[in-house]
Amino acid sequence: MKRIAAVDCGTNSLRLLVSDVGDGDIRQVTRTMEIIRLGEGVDETGRISPEAIERARVVLQNYTDHMTRENVRAVRMVATSASRDAENREEFFDMTENVLSKVQPGARAEVIDGTEEAKLSFIGAVKDLPPTDDPILVIDLGGGSTEFIVGKQSGEILGAYSTRMGCVRLTERFLHTQPPTPDEIAEAREYVRGELAKVKESVPVGQATVYVGCAGTFTTLSAIAQGLEHYDEQAIHMSTLRTEGLKLVTQDLLAQTGAQRAMLPVMHQGRADVIGGGCIVVEEIIDFMAREAGLTQITISEHDILDGIVAGLAKEVQ
Q1: Are 164 and 278 members of one domain?
Q2: Minimal CA–CA distance to 3: which of 23, 35, 36, 26?
Q3: 253 FRET partner, CA 20 to 30 A, in 99, 210, 264, 312?
Q4: What is the Cα Rg of the chain in Å?
Q5: Out of the domains of life, which is the source (predicted)?
């Protein structure tokens, strides 16, 4: 068995997955996440702030120390929405090379486009679903973007599109009070509906009969809907939520302040102030998919782009 690692840097979080691979088998060793808010202000300024780069460096250094202790032999790091949008992204990439080279010489974060992000997320999200030949829709709701991918469990992708909407982007652009005002929510909803119209033009969402939501907004909503007393990955992974119940959770969260949300036992402190934006995206997706495909329930996956990266890296090292 060889030990490899995947690192995903999104708009809101920096995440690490360490796995053992060999003989076609992949076994998780470590999965961890820290909120770094790399995309803070990027939507407005077009640049990653020095403070955000430093927050990323500190966490990435901790991850690198962990990978060194765990004898990781190969690592791939991808950066998504915030670094795609930033004028000064090379400053961030240079920092990642300085840190990651301690694990693998020359390793450096690479920016991937929305299409590759969507495909990697799909691979990770569907691998634990019961076998099916039906088309699957995966929705990966991040901080700065949300990916929609329809494909088959075999890996065939029927359509993919990356939208410019996510919990951080919506919060910074529209939700300036906590809880947000009706006018702020209405403006955010109008923006999301415009993005969803682009999805309808690009992805055959109406063909899907299985629906999977992944990333932090969806997994946190599942934990709340289940009434968990602590964040339990096993209870959340492959849980199925009825959409009417899910909307009750999102409506309740939207009516709360960030401080009230932070008191929930399953809420990561770095997510409390932006999950309202994610709730609006989820509500609009539910209504959109109910019209397009009769959506009544959605499965929540703890696995996503990290697992897709590991699967690809495993093929290279074996």
Answers
A1: yes
A2: 26
A3: 210
A4: 19
A5: Bacteria
Same domain assignment for residues 150 and 108: no
Our CA angle for 71, 75, 81, nearest 5°, is 145
Q: What Cα–Cα distance (Å) separates residue 282 from each residue in 29, 70, 102, 117, 286?
A: 31, 37, 40, 19, 6
Residue 10 sits in the same domain as residue 33: yes
| pLDDT tens per residue across all 318 residues of the chain | 899 999 999 888 899 999 999 887 899 999 999 999 888 888 888 899 999 999 999 999 999 999 999 999 999 999 876 677 788 989 999 999 999 999 999 999 998 877 788 888 899 999 999 999 999 999 999 998 999 999 999 888 999 999 999 999 999 999 999 999 999 999 999 999 999 999 999 999 999 999 999 999 999 999 999 999 999 999 999 999 999 999 999 999 999 999 999 999 999 988 999 999 999 999 999 999 999 999 999 999 999 999 999 998 988 876
Q: Are 249 and 224 in contact (CB under 8 A)?
A: yes
Between CA 203 and CA 38 the distance in angstroms is: 29
Q: Which domain holds residue 43?
A: 2-112+308-317
DSSP assignment string, the chain: -EEEEEEEE-SSEEEEEEEEEETTEEEEEEEEEEE--TTTTHHHHSS--HHHHHHHHHHHHHHHHHHHHTT--EEEEEE-HHHHH-TTHHHHHHHHHHHHTTTSTT---EE--HHHHHHHHHHHHHTTSPP--S-EEEEEE-SS-EEEEEE-TTS-EEEEEEES--HHHHHHHT--SSSPPHHHHHHHHHHHHHHHHHHHHHS-GGG--EEEEESHHHHHHHHHHTT-SS--HHHHTTEEEEHHHHHHHHHHHHTS-HHHHHTSTT--TTTTTTHHHHHHHHHHHHHHHHHHH---EEEEES--HHHHHHHHHHHHH-
